[in-house]
Every structure is written in structure tokens, then in C-alpha cells.
Amino acid sequence: MSIKALRGMKDILPPLSRTYLRFIQEASKAAQNYGFEYIETPLLEETALFRRSVGESSDIVGKEMYQFIDKGGNDVVLRPEGTASVVRSFIEHKLDKKGGVHRFFYYGPMFRYERPQKGRFRQFHQFGVESFGEPSVYEDAAIILLAKEILDRFHIDYTLKINSLGCPQCLPPYRQTLVEFLQSHEDICEDCKRRRKLNPIRTLDCKNPHCQSIYQEAPKLLDHLCDACQREFGKLQELLHREGVDFTIDEHLVRGLDYYTRTAFEFVSTALGAQNAVAGGGRYDNLVELLGGKPTPAVGFAIGIERLLDLIDEEAAKREGFYMGVLDLQALDLAFDLASKKRKKSKVLLQYKPKSLKAHLKSADRHNARYAAIIGAEELQKGTIWLKDLEQKSERSIDISRFLELE
User: Fold this and answer.
1) For 231-242, how does the pLDDT look when each residue is reduced to its tens digit (9 = 90+)?
2) What is the pLDDT of residues 178-231, one digit of tens each?
3) Residue 119 — very low, low, confident or very high, per pLDDT cuts 50/70/90?
4) How far apart are CA 97 and CA 86, in angstroms?
5) Which helix (H) or strand (E) is 371 found in, with range?
6) Is the C or the N end of the chain the one with fewer CB within 10 Å?
7) What span, in angstroms and rounded, lies between the C-alpha atoms of 51 and 290?
8) Inter-residue contact 295 to 58 (CB < 8 Å)
9) 322-405 adopts what CATH topology?
10) What is the pTM of this model?
11) Does the domain at residues 16-170+225-309 carry the CATH identifier 3.30.990.10?
12) Residue 275 CB contacts under 8 Å (≥ 6 apart), including other chains
């Protein structure tokens, strides 16, 4: 019986893996241009971390976590999202007490036990950024611009949606108004009834068409914002307009996690069907304090990498490096030595089995090498290498010393 990957967990093989690596490299470069530095957190965390941060009302905690008791009796979970882990690390290493601004980016696998479908897997990968210590709405705008920059680098077609989720001053009165509205509609779905008790704002995120038709008449959070939140949301719109960023205001955009405050945003693509969010984030000024740290303003976003891979046009791979082969087995020791030296600076693929020149050139072309470097009995005797530039279609014999200088 053959053993296959678990349902909802997939291998990433070439050529898709080349696109995956290209995305990581480009997204990391963009984040570094905005002043972010790399952070890596463990895949395994205490379950309590996500119950306290993500929230009991979220589908992640309620339905989707890979949770188990380990051999030491610890209640642990495979991380379902990145922000809570970064916040935990931020507090654990006492960065909240150092003050100043700390900006991090990360990428890696996340795990959620949900029904696999297009653009959604049980093991998936995210690229994310988190900024701590900067309360200015200018940072919100910069975070959105960074996400846009990454998507634009890959020519992703998207719509940007923004909303404000208010603050601890204006949110409680609105929540009470919303609860009264929800209590007058007992025909909402069971999930919404559960959320009505735990976090009524989350009901607005329901994907049930019947519920959505009801919520068209629900009180609007934007109508209940305090003066400070209204000014900040207006400034965010002004900044985006000034940078030429198109957006729409979505009053039902509340994100899927409980920790967001004020700014919330999503980039969505119609090319993905129902699972159309390719990136999303917002401000979460209360989360560091909620997890036991010093009150610290924070804002960030995450991008679902698998959802993007199908939307990214695979670029024709550039010819790169050297393919080395021998016509005679006696030349293999020399070829091996030369390949080891050149690998310190260049990509080298060495074919151990002697082949004809025609067969070697065919292999070099298949591996997309820039150069084919071949050693036969004549080259071995003269101390030379036969070299073909597969991009320029030129060929020559050169001394070994000159070959080692090529890059």
C-alpha cells in the first residue's frame, strides 16, 4: 500500500517551487525596503496563546485548530496563524519594555483543520509583517502600501477593501446596538448565534447568504465611531488617495480574528472564487497587553501564499550556471575537482556518467544551464575544457585556469 500526503497537505515541487521561492525572495526584499527584519517562531505553541488572542468566537479556535496533548501533558497546537506567535515572542524577549518601534516579517507553514478546497489547505504558507510601537495612522498606510507593493510585483489583479473597527471607547456602545439588532432576528445561522454571545461583531463576517441579506439592515459601525476613530479613518483614506491607491469601504469587513481594532483591510481577487482574500490585516493595539505585555500599538498583515501561486505567471527561467560532463571516465576526477571549486561561486550540475557530446548538450539544455563544460581525452591531455555558451550559441576551448575564473 502506497503512503500519500495527508488530505489538505500538498508537496510543492518544481516548477511551482520556483515560483514559491521567487515570491519569498521578492516579498522579503520589499519588506526589508520598508525597514522590517526577519523573525522565525516555532510551529508548535501553547493552545492558550490562540484562545486568548484569536478569540473563542473565531472559526480557527472553535473548529479548525490542530490541537493535542503532548507526551509531557502540555496542551499544544500547530500554529494556525502568525501574528499571535510573533506577539508572544515580542513579549517573551521583553521587547515591549524596551520601547521604540520594532518591525518584523516572517514566512512559513500554518495549520488549520478545515475542508480543503481551491485556495485553502490544511497546511498552508503565509508571508506576514508585524509592526510594534508605532501608533500613527501613517504606519497603517505604509503597511497597506507594502502589501500592495508585493502584490504589484507579481501583477496580481485585486481590489482593496478597508474599514474601521473602532476602539475601546466607541466599540462597546456599538456592540450593544448590534446585539439588540441580532436578538430581533432568530433566523440567523447557528454560527451567528454563537458569535452573538462571544463577539457579535464577527456575525457581520458570516458567509451565509441568508445572514448577509439580514445584515444589510444592521447598524453600521462607521456611524458609531468616536471622533478620534473618525479622524484616523479619514486620514487613512486621504493617505491612500495621495498615493494613488484605489480602494472601497466595506462596512462588513471585520476580519476573521478577534484582536483587530481600528484599521482593517483586505486585498481580494475574483480569480479565486469563494476564497478570494489574498492578503489581509489591520491594527491590533490591545493584543500585546491582552497576552501579558506592556500596552503597545501594533499593525500588520498576512498573505496566503498558496492562493497567490495560481495567480502568478511563471517566468521563463533564466539560463544559469554550468553543466559539466565527461566524454571519458578518466576525466571524471578532474571534472569533480573543478565542479567543487566552481560551486563556491556558481551553480554547477555535474553528470557523473560519460556520454556523447550530443547527449551532454541535450542534458545541459534540459537543466537550463548557461554553459556546457565538457572534458574528453583530448581536453584532459591539453589541460583545457570545451565550453559552449547555450545562450549566445558560441563555443570554444579554454584553459582550466580561465574556466575557474568564469561566473
Assistant:
1) 999 999 999 999
2) 888 988 888 899 888 888 887 788 788 787 889 988 888 888 889 999 999 999
3) low
4) 15
5) strand 371-375
6) N
7) 11
8) no
9) Rossmann fold (3.40.50)
10) 0.86
11) no
12) 117, 118, 119, 120, 307
